[in-house]
């Protein structure tokens, strides 16, 4: 069975490539920052108007009651 050395080689490559990529990207903070900035993983929509606070809601309700009378 001559498959033994080939399987060890393939397994070594399987482990080495991710390890080398992590070292290349995360080993240098400048590379890591460049990779993070070049990809927008989460894009948040622009922030809308804030809902009124409890005090503002009480004032709005009071104005609505007064306008009904």
Model description:
- Residues 59-69 have a biased composition (Basic and acidic residues).
- Keywords: Membrane, Transmembrane, Transmembrane helix.
- Residues 47-69 are annotated as: Disordered.
- InterPro entries: Pet100.
- The chain crosses the membrane at residues 12-29.
- By secondary structure, the protein is an all-alpha fold.
- The protein is 71% helix and 0% strand.
- It is built from 3 helices and no strands.
- The chain has helices spanning 3-26, 29-38, 54-68.
- The longest helix is centred in the first third of the chain and has 24 residues, at 3-26.
- It is rod-shaped, with a radius of gyration of 30 Å.
- The chain starts with a helix and ends with a helix.
- The model has no long low-confidence stretch (mean pLDDT 88).
Please count the helical segments.
Answer: 3
Q: Helicity range of the residues?
A: over 70%
Shape: rod-shaped
Indicate the structural class.
mainly alpha
Average pLDDT figure:
88
- Point out poorly predicted stretches: none
Main features:
single chain, mainly alpha, membrane, 69 residues, Pet100, transmembrane helix, rod-shaped, 3 helices
Give the SSE layout.
Blueprint lengths: L2 H24 L2 H10 L15 H15 L1
Give a quick summary of the entry:
The chain is an all-alpha fold.
